[in-house]
Automatic annotation (TrEMBL):
GO BP terms: glycerol metabolic process; rhamnose catabolic process
Keyword Iron in record: no
Gene Ontology cellular component list: cytosol
Protein's pathway: Carbohydrate degradation; L-rhamnose degradation; glycerone phosphate from L-rhamnose: step 2/3
Organism: Neobacillus bataviensis
Protein name: Rhamnulokinase
Binding site for substrate: A80, H237, D238, T239, N296
Gene label: rhaB
Gene3D superfamilies registered for this protein in UniProt: 3.30.420.40
Length: 472
């Protein structure tokens, strides 16, 4: 009997419900619902529209009825680090504040007054991003302590949506690791660290791993939707799900390319050595207790903001075409500079950077786009060199997955600057990895190697070779 699973994949720029099932050994996808996601200003805070997003999840489930689809399971994944705090009546104490909110400015440095940076990295293995959950919570403790006093439940965004679906509370492992509050070795909440920071450890829930069946829908939702299903935990950190879908059975460097570019490798143990700290790599949790040794690169957020600055006049494909036409323009920015995390105007910020560094100044949408793509490719190349230095080996190929793998110009740039074979696809890697974890929980797929073989056979993967010869 064929099992049907729904992946709810909500990224920073868009969300989608995708139905997945096995047919003749191949994984089939049907997109049920797609919707926009964005950060909105709520008072003085930059927030996600959590209520609207949950309504979109229900809208997508209602479409199943219209399509005559009766799914067996659902799994939710989103971006990392962000969370909700619930009071004793299970009511949210704040809006869903975004990691791009400036409330964490200066918080990392204040935390280092409580715990040495090196110790924090040795215990958690997590990269130092100013917006990590640890710094968000510390900001609340410093600026609105009454909120933490009332907090009885800490749920990350997917955990919160799972709670609304089932009434059950749990923290899923892959996303919990992104908080920088989980011990990389015990894989549990680091209570010593929480005590050091004066954050009440009682509000955190039991950490559960991908493939866990959390429960079924609440009675209210069954009567609203007209059906019930199993709510299964995928890797609820979207990048954790994306990495599951890398269509490569052997070792490879992956780039999960979307709002962020997450570049790294899969590993069996956490690498918390000084060089990994200096290069700011992370050891986020993966499925089956793998580690995702990777780093955040600012990613296509920059081109999303450039597109917005030009009043969404150009599609992403048109911006690539315009960048190709600007082939002679060359200026490189440090994409990982905090100035690009949430500038008032990304185009202006890029121009200012080029003025400050004495470079040619991009003046057309094509030149700005080319500057972004060239700069991302340079940043990827630096990360590849760092990975090969730490692993003391050369990797032969790079797999690009996610929406960004549709950018053929960037894929070719990556092949040219790294001098490696680049394999681009699948586009919906996150949703695919989400579905794979559900089908594994439903005993439709037995293990990851089998899953990756199925993904490779089921979806298009385009190959890019360096235009210059590969020199070993
Ligand atoms: N046709 C296209 N040509 C070139 N680039 C594209 C195309 N379609 C999408 N993209 C790129 O893909 C990006 C979106 O990727 P994706 O859909 O994986 O992001 P998301 O899942 O919405 O967000 P997140 O990265 O937070 O998960 C866009 O910002 C854009 O740069
Ligand atoms: C904010 C996080 O760095 C971000 O969610 C990243 O981990 C990611 O997975 C983006 O899709
Ligand atoms: Mg995504």
């Amino acid at each position: 009997m064929t099992k049907y699973s729904i992946a709810v994949d909500i990224g920073a720029s868009s969300g989608r419900l995708i139905l997945g099932y096995l047919e003749n050994g191949l994984l089939k996808l049907d997109e049920i619902h797609r919707f926009e996601n964005k950060i909105v200003k709520n008072g003085d805070s930059y927030c996600w529209e959590a209520d609207k997003l949950f309504q979109e999840i229900k809208n997508g489930l209602k479409k199943c009825n219209e399509l005559g689809v009766k799914p067996d399971s659902i799994g939710i994944d989103t971006w990392a680090v962000d969370f909700m705090l619930l009071d004793e009546k299970n009511q949210p104490l704040t809006e869903a504040v975004s990691y791009r909110d400036p409330r964490t400015d200066g918080m990392m440095e204040q935390v280092f007054e409580k715990i040495m940076k090196e110790r924090l990295y040795l215990e958690t293995g997590i990269q130092f991003q100013k917006f990590n959950t640890i710094y968000q919570l510390y900001s609340i403790k410093q600026n609105s302590p009454e909120i933490l006093d009332k907090a009885k439940s800490f749920l990350m965004i997917p955990d919160y949506f799972n709670y609304l679906l089932t009434g059950k509370k749990a923290n899923e492992y892959t996303n919990a690791t992104s908080t920088q509050l989980v011990n990389a070795f015990t894989k549990k909440w680091d209570h010593d660290l929480l005590d050091l920071l004066g954050i009440n450890k009682e509000m955190f829930h039991e950490i559960k791993t991908p493939k866990t069946v959390l429960g079924t829908l609440t009675e209210e939702l069954v009567s609203e939707l007209g059906f019930d299903l199993q709510v299964i935990l995928p890797a609820t950190h979207d990048t954790g799900s994306a990495v599951i879908a890398v269509p490569e059975e052997n070792e490879t460097i992956y780039i999960s390319s979307g709002t962020w570019s997450l570049i790294g490798v899969e590993n069996y143990f956490p690498i918390c050595v000084t060089k990994a700290l200096d290069y700011n790599f992370t050891n986020e949790g993966g499925i089956d207790y793998q580690y995702r040794f990777l780093k955040n690169i600012m990613g296509l957020w920059m081109i999303q903001e450039v597109r917005r600055n030009y009043n969404n006049e150009y599609s992403f494909a048109e911006l690539v075409d315009l960048a190709r036409e600007a082939k002679d323009f060359r200026a490189i920015v440090n994409v990982n500079d905090d100035r690009f995390l949430k500038p008032e105007n990304m185009v202006q910020e890029i121009m200012n950077y080029c003025v400050e560094t004495g470079q040619s100044i991009p003046s057309t949408p094509g030149e700005v786009a080319k500057c972004v793509y060239d700069s991302l490719a340079v940043s990827y190349q630096d990360a590849v060199h760092e990975i090969e230095e730490i692993f003391e080996k050369r990797f032969e190929k790079i797999n690009v997955i996610g929406g960004g793998c549709q950018n053929e110009m960037l894929n070719q740039l990556v092949a040219d600057v790294t001098k490696k074979e680049v394999y681009a696809g699948p586009v919906e890697a996150t949703a695919i990895g989400n579905i794979v974890a559900q089908l594994m929980a439903l005993d439709e797929i037995q293990h990851i190697k089998e899953a990756r073989k199925i993904v490779k056979n089921s979806f298009e993967v385009k190959k890019y070779l360096p235009t210059a010869p590969i020199t070993n």
